[in-house]
Amino acid sequence: MLKRGYWFWFINILFCLFLILRGFFDYQNLKEKLVVLADDNEVRRGSYWGYICSQVDRGEKWQRFTFCSPTPILVYTKLYPEYSYGDFLSFKGEIKLPTSFSDFNYPLYLAAKNIYFISYYPQLEIASGRLKEKEQALVFLNKVKERARQLFNKNLPEPEASLANALIWGFKKDLFAEDIALFRDLGISHLVVISGLHVSILGGIILLFFYLIALKRRFSLILAGIFLFVYLIFVGLSSALLRATITFFLILIARYYKRLTISRRMLMLTFNLVLTYRPVALYLDIGFQLSFLAVFGIYYIYPLHLLFFKKIRKSSLLCARLFSYFFSTFFLTLACQLASWPILINNFQGFSALAFLVNPSVAWLMPLILAPLLLAFLFSIFLPSFSFFFFLPAYFFLSLFFKIINLFDIGNSKLIAISPLSSFGIIIYYLILFISVFILRRKYLKGQTKTRLL
Q1: Which residues contact 229 (CB under 8 A, 6 or more apart)?
Q2: DSSP 3-state assignment of 96?
């Protein structure tokens, strides 16, 4: 008879294998459907009626959104008139299959989002229609999100406003192209998009706020869970954000019932829950792959930094503490890079060597940016006349963030180009990594046991 702990792993591993197989078949079906559509690759012209069912992205000369008719269509149109989520439109124009790039399968990427056709500058007219209650709720949230974006733009200059909108509301398209390139070259793109780090910080801030106003512990945990659920819908159901939110929910549930959290079990359970919602993510969603591999690195590789510089970490000197912080953050970056290195290489053909220096230099600023931004937004709702003053602390730390990263901007690309790995190379890499981590963790755990005995 299996013990309770073994039953957990037995059931979850079986369920995980089922989800992996289901995702594989879904992935093959998507590829077959694209092959069939490609064989009949003719430009179709027609008239459709529907509504905008995605956030409207705006470039310098265009708007882009998903038009939900019988078949979802990715639409590019002129910058004016401006459209918004939930607008009903009559559509007349050409639709065709998206074109693949040399290093990116764009049709497959869109097919994973259930989009198979694209249209450039069709004839659009505002039409009448009524949304379902679920869509009406999403339209309301999108309007609130747009008002929040305008509030940030009103009280912060550029490029601080664009970064703030990306950090809190997920408006990645607001970032300037040169800033996006710099973040990528410095290896800090994960810091400027909503990820597990941001969910943890925002969730912690909200929880601390409820504790400070003397709410009961369990009631605070429930309110924090509601906040995270609304926030998840608010900014979009990306795989990385979904993973982080589920993990935080599991921590809240454990704290509600005063139970311990076991990282291995949380990782396994979260993996299965995300794949239940989106089985094909394992094969198509790079964000999903990088998110879980990074968490694996944090759980299993990062603790190994405690094997090094033990005497320095025990010192109370300021220089020793600063060294411990930089080494800890350096090793955290290294752990995430080691765990996700093949995926990074195969998708981006390189990695940033400066990431090991830049991440420790700016990572400490993230709570100091996110907390003032969130508080400024909340206070501005009730006292809009003083919103400029509420945003001043956030502006200071956002400006400091840009000043620090500009110190590392040396003018040319900082990416080290590496050829993609073969499937066999990836298997060998992870085999060596797992064996190395297993041996070092045994040494680490043996040291922990000795410490407890002493």
Answers
A1: 245
A2: strand
Q: Determine how many CB atoms are found less than 10 A away from the CB of residue 56.
A: 19
- Nearest residue to 179 via CA among 198, 158, 194: 158
Contact 66, 54 (CB under 8 A): yes
Cβ neighbours of residue 242 closer than 8 Å, sequence gap 6 or more: 232, 274, 277, 278
Rg over alpha carbons for the chain, rounded to the nearest Å, is 24
Instruction: Please report the domains of the chain, with CATH numbers, ordered by start residue.
Output: 36-130 (2.40.50.140), 141-453 (no CATH)
Helices and strands, counts by H and E, the chain: 18, 9
| AA letter at 160 | E
Paired residues of 49 in beta bridges: 90
Binned average pLDDT, 10 residues per bin, the chain of 454 residues: 71 90 90 78 78 83 87 88 88 85 78 86 87 82 86 91 88 82 81 77 80 81 85 79 85 82 82 89 84 85 79 76 79 82 76 77 85 88 89 93 86 65 85 88 65 39
Residue of 142, 166, 72 whose CA lies nearest to 112: 72
Q: CA 349, CA 323: separation in Å to the nearest integer?
A: 32
Please give the torsion angle defined by the CA atoms of residues 294, 298, 299 and 303, in that order, rounded to the nearest 10 degrees.
Answer: 150
What is the phi/psi pair of residue 130, to 5°? -130, 130
Structure-block tokens of residue 281: 């993510």
- Counted residue by residue, the chain has a size of 454
pTM for this model (two decimals):
0.80
Query: Which residue(s) pair with 51 in the sheet?
Result: 68, 88
Q: Distance between CA 283 and CA 402 in Å, rounded?
A: 35
As beta bridge partners, residue 417 has 350
How many angstroms separate the CA atoms of 381 and 132, rounded? 28
